[in-house]
Write a structure and sequence with these properties.
4 strands; alpha+beta; four-stranded antiparallel sheet
Length: about 375
C-alpha cells in the first residue's frame, strides 16, 4: 500500500519520526510536565519555611574629615610646610575608616559582646571572624562621602545592635589613636618649650648687661639679627623635624633625604651670615651678637609655643567627629529567604527539567532510534 501523499507531494509526518516537532513529542506529557513543575515549586516553597529568616540592619555616617593640627604647626617652619603637608595628608580617608571597621580589633569586640562563636556554632575565633565578614558589608559611597554598614543576622535586634556597635567602636578607636599621637607631640614640644624659655631668659640678661658703641649702632643690628634669627630658628626646627622622622622612617626615605637637603641649604646660608659678621672686633662680645642671639631665642620660643598649643588642642579633642546619618533599627521584614521568588524559580527549573526528561525519553523511543 502506498503512503498517502500530502498536497505538496511529501510524505506526512508520523508520530515518532525523526522530523517530528518538539511540541508533538512533549504534548502527550504536558500534564506530567506541569505537575512536576508545580510540585517542585510547592516543595521549594515549603523548604523556605524550614530556613531561619535573615534580617538586615543598616546604618550610615559621614566620613570623618579631621585634619591633625600637626600640619598647621609645621606650617610655622617655613620650608617644612609643604613637606609636612605632603607627609601627613591622607589620599582617601574614607577607605582608611572602612579598613578600621574591618579590623580584627573591632571584629573581636563584636564577637565577644554578642557571643558570635555560639551564634555561628563555630569552635575557633578565626572561623567566627570569617563568618562575621560574610554577614557584614561595609562600603564608602563614591559620590556622597558616606560610609554604609549593613549587618545580616537571624535576630533583627542583634543585627541592629551590631551595626550600631561598629560605629561606637570606630569612634573609640579614632579617639584613642588621635589622643596618643597628640600626647606624644604635646610632651615633646613641652620639653622643647621649657628649654627655649630658659635660653631666652639667659639671652635677655646678656643683652641687658652688654654695652654698645656708635659703630655698633651704625651696623643696624636689628635687621641683621632678625635675618640671622630666622635662619637659626629654621635650622633648629629642621633638626627637630629630622630627629622626629628618623625615629619612624629609614635613613634612605625620600622625606628624610629632602629634609636633609633643606637643612644643608639653611646651614650654608647661616654660615655666610656668620662669616659676614666677623670683623676686627671678633674677640669682643658685642651688642650685635647678643641682640642677634636674643632674637633667635625669641623666634624659637614662639615657634615651640605655637606647636605646643596646637598639640594641646588636639589632645583635648575626642578624635575624629563621626556624624551618624541613620541609626540602625531592627528590621520589621526578613531579607531572606524570599519565598515567592524561590517558589517561582523552582517551578521554572522543574518545568525545564521535566521538558528535557520527556523529550529525551521520547526521542529514545522513536522508531528510528529503535532500529
Amino acid at each position: 500500500m502506498n503512503d498517502p501523499v500530502t498536497p505538496h507531494g511529501q510524505a506526512p509526518i508520523t508520530p515518532g519520526s525523526p522530523a517530528q516537532p518538539v511540541t508533538a513529542l512533549l504534548l502527550p506529557h504536558w500534564k506530567r510536565i506541569a505537575g512536576t513543575a508545580l510540585a517542585t515549586g510547592v516543595v521549594a516553597f515549603g523548604i523556605t519555611f524550614l530556613i531561619p529568616p535573615t534580617y538586615t540592619s543598616r546604618t550610615s555616617f559621614i566620613s570623618p574629615q579631621q585634619q591633625s593640627s600637626a600640619v598647621a604647626a609645621m606650617a610655622s617652619l617655613g620650608a617644612l610646610a609643604n613637606l609636612a603637608s605632603g607627609a601627613s595628608s591622607i589620599k582617601n580617608q574614607a577607605e582608611q575608616f572602612v579598613s578600621l571597621l574591618q579590623s580584627a580589633t573591632i571584629s573581636d569586640i563584636l564577637i565577644d559582646r554578642h557571643t558570635l562563636m555560639e551564634v555561628y556554632d563555630v569552635k575557633y575565633r578565626s572561623a567566627a571572624r570569617k563568618k562575621l565578614a560574610e554577614n557584614v558589608r561595609i562600603a564608602a559611597g563614591k559620590k556622597d562621602g558616606l560610609i554604609y554598614i549593613e549587618v545580616d543576622d537571624t535576630s533583627a535586634q542583634r543585627a541592629a545592635d551590631m551595626a550600631n556597635l561598629y560605629v561606637a567602636e570606630l569612634r573609640k578607636m579614632t579617639s584613642s589613636l588621635a589622643l596618643t599621637e597628640a600626647q606624644q607631640r604635646r610632651v615633646f614640644f613641652e620639653s622643647q618649650l621649657k628649654l627655649a624659655r630658659d635660653r631666652l631668659k639667659t639671652a635677655q640678661l646678656k643683652l641687658q648687661d652688654s654695652g654698645f658703641s656708635v659703630g655698633d649702632l651704625k651696623a643696624e643690628p636689628k635687621a641683621a639679627a632678625e635675618s640671622f634669627a630666622r635662619l637659626k630658628a629654621e635650622q633648629t626646627s629642621l633638626q627637630v623635624r629630622l630627629r622626629a622622622l628618623q625615629s619612624r622612617l629609614a635613613d634612605n626615605a625620600p622625606e628624610i633625604q629632602q629634609l636633609r637637603a633643606t637643612l644643608s641649604g639653611t646651614d650654608a646660608a647661616l654660615a655666610r651670615l656668620e662669616a659676614s659678621g666677623n670683623g676686627s672686633e671678633e674677640s669682643r662680645v658685642s651688642y650685635v651678637s647678643r641682640y642677634r642671639d636674643y632674637k633667635y631665642e625669641e623666634a624659637l620660643f614662639e615657634i615651640f609655643a605655637r606647636q605646643y598649643e596646637l598639640a594641646r588642642s588636639d589632645e583635648s579633642r575626642d578624635g575624629a567627629l563621626i556624624q551618624i546619618i541613620d541609626v540602625a533599627q531592627p528590621a520589621d521584614r526578613r531579607t531572606r529567604p524570599k519565598r515567592v521568588f524561590t517558589a517561582i524559580g523552582a517551578t521554572v527549573a522543574g518545568a525545564f527539567a521535566a521538558i528535557a526528561f520527556f523529550y529525551i525519553r521520547a526521542r529514545r523511543r522513536s522508531p528510528s532510534n529503535a532500529q
